[in-house]
């Protein structure tokens, strides 16, 4: 029998953390704690990556509040081509960059967004997630969280790159991720080992960014209350 | 993205001052960006020796991938810029005779919906012909089975796999069978598509299984093949994915165990059109996991 991978060992913890009745930050933290307990070496490598990214100011040059959100044309989980302006025609939108269906933190994040959907839709606001995963895996991520919003595919992180939101994972963590069962190459359809920095942009119907959350520490995401507040005040 | 752009300028000029000038940025900012990229990639990319500055082994190794990433980002930007009224978006695609266009119907519909100025030119040809279309630039994208090409600039994206088997008319005496052995084919007239990428492979398989002098009809296109099949002129060994069920049935051919990969081909480093870049990513992102006969 092959030894179970870290991702398999953590699956139960992930489901438990995802299903907690608690704020998003607490659910993410609960999973991060579980990972540190069961995979201390991996957690240490992640710490290194995060401090490396923070040091070189990764994500700092991404579009800022008050600036226009750059346009995109991306396929969604149903194979439809979606433009940013199509989404804005329906009202203000929260664009949530996520790393992929394989990432536990993203699964928790998408789940939290799905839970907030009723409140968001009631105010005629929307959510769209953007991942570098191909359609099949975008569909998986969406159904894992029973998310009603579209999950768009950003092939090769092309759009994320234009926003300075993509980074190279680097050899050390790459080897560790593969052996732990977190390998994005198959779902991305490329082995360039680039990932987006998870970020959330609240964009008004005028295409201007009303709020943003960018943190190279991918274990933290925009709080749902902040997202709701910013979406509400956006026009 | 600007990190990569700066590095590409450095790789071309091998001079930080010139690279900074070319990128219209102060040299310290360029140096910082290169440092950041080196941090990400886990090693030095450039050996700084003034006039003798050159890329390190890591820099050399990373250069093609970084160039590709940069092109990808440029393409993402280009594709997002909406087409102005009255502007056209031309795209030329060549598809081998053996690949059914229906598979791509929904993607083409999306492409034409998203790009109102789309002007599509579709060519059909044998494997060699579509490969030549690609090489000469007559086609920007090619969709075909395996191409017998050893061209370093040929970029291959596998899309889906199709298992091959026996296909006969529903009125044929083998039609009710679940599987058939090779030796039973020696009494049949074979239909052979000379334009099929696998025609040589199929001939070899037939001979290896003792089928030499079977009578045969030859056609050049898949449409004609299907017409011949339905008209009962013979039986064919072909990709299962090709076949709608109308008037025709698919039967396992024992010991054949042959599948073909349908891929999208393009030329690495060649500038893409808006429509070409959009379709390229649409096909790459698509879920091809449908019934191609691959699942038993």
Summary tags:
heterodimer; A: alpha/beta; Glutaredoxin; 5-stranded mixed sheet; two-stranded antiparallel sheet; 10 helices; 16% strand; B: 296 residues; alpha/beta; Arc Repressor Mutant, subunit A; D-Maltodextrin-Binding Protein, domain 2; 3 domains; 37% helix; disordered C terminus
3D structure, described in words:
- The complex is a heterodimer of chains A (235) and B (296).
- Chain A is α/β, with parallel strands linked by helices and 235 residues long.
- Chain A has a single domain, classed as Glutaredoxin, CATH 3.40.30.10.
- Helices cover 46% and strands 16% of the residues of chain A.
- The longest helix of chain A is centred in the middle third of the chain and has 19 residues.
- Chain B has 296 residues and is an alpha/beta fold.
- Chain B folds into 3 domains: 79 residues, Winged helix-like DNA-binding domain superfamily/Winged helix DNA-binding domain (Arc Repressor Mutant, subunit A, Orthogonal Bundle), CATH 1.10.10; 97 residues, Periplasmic binding protein-like II (D-Maltodextrin-Binding Protein, domain 2), CATH 3.40.190.10; 97 residues, Periplasmic binding protein-like II (D-Maltodextrin-Binding Protein, domain 2), CATH 3.40.190.10.
- Chain B is built from 9 helices and 12 strands.
- Chain B is elongated, with a radius of gyration of 25 Å.
């Amino acid at each position: 029998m092959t030894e179970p991978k870290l991702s398999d060992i953590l699956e139960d913890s992930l489901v438990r953390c995802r299903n907690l009745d608690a704020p998003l930050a607490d659910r993410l933290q609960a999973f991060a704690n579980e990972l540190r307990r069961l995979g201390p070496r991996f957690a240490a490598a992640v710490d290194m990556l995060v401090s490396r990214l923070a040091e070189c100011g990764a994500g700092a040059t991404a579009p800022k509040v008050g600036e226009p959100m750059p346009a995109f044309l991306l396929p969604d989980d149903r194979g439809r081509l979606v433009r940013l302006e199509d989404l804005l025609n329906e009202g203000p939108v929260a664009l949530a960059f996520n790393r992929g269906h394989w990432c536990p933190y993203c699964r928790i994040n998408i789940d939290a967004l799905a839970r907030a959907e009723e409140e968001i839709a009631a105010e005629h606001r929307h959510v769209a997630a953007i991942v570098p995963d191909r359609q099949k895996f975008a569909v998986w991520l969406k159904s894992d969280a029973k998310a009603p919003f579209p999950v768009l595919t950003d092939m090769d992180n092309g759009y994320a790159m234009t926003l300075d939101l993509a980074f190279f994972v680097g050899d050390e963590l790459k080897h560790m991720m593969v052996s732990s069962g977190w390998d994005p190459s198959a779902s991305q359809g490329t082995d360039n080992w680039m990932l987006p920095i998870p970020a959330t942009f609240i964009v008004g119907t005028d295409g201007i960014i009303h709020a943003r959350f960018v943190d190279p520490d991918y274990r933290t995401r925009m709080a749902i209350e902040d997202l709701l507040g910013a979406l509400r005040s956006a026009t | 993205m600007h990190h990569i752009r700066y590095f590409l300028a450095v790789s071309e000029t091998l001079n930080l001052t010139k690279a900074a000038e070319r990128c219209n940025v102060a040299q310290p900012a360029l140096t910082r960006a290169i440092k950041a990229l080196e941090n990400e990639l886990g090693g030095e990319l450039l050996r700084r020796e003034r006039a003798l500055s050159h890329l390190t082994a890591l820099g050399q190794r990373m250069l093609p991938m970084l160039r590709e990433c940069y092109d990808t980002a440029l393409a993402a930007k280009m594709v997002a810029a909406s087409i102005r009224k009255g502007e056209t978006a031309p795209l030329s695609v060549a598809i081998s005779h053996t690949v059914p266009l229906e598979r791509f119907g929904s993607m083409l519909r999306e492409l034409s919906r998203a790009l109102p100025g789309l002007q599509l030119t579709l060519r059909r040809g044998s494997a060699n012909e579509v490969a030549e279309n690609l090489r000469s630039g007559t086609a920007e994208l090619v969709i075909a089975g395996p191409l017998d090409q050893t061209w370093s600039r040929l970029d291959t994206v596998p899309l889906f796999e199709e298992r091959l088997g026996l296909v006969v008319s529903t009125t044929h005496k083998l039609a009710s069978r679940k599987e058939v052995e090779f030796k039973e084919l020696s009494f049949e007239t074979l239909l052979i598509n000379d334009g099929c990428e696998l025609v040589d492979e199929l001939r070899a398989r037939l001979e290896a299984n003792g089928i030499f002098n079977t009578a045969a009809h030859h056609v050049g296109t898949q449409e004609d093949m299907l017409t011949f099949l339905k008209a009962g002129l013979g039986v064919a060994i072909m990709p299962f994915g090709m076949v709608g069920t109308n008037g025709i049935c698919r039967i396992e051919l024992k010991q054949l165990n042959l599948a073909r990969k349908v891929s999208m081909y393009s030329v690495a480093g060649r500038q893409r059109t808006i429509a070409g870049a959009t379709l390229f990513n649409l096909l790459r992102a698509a879920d091809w996991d449908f019934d191609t006969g691959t699942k038993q």
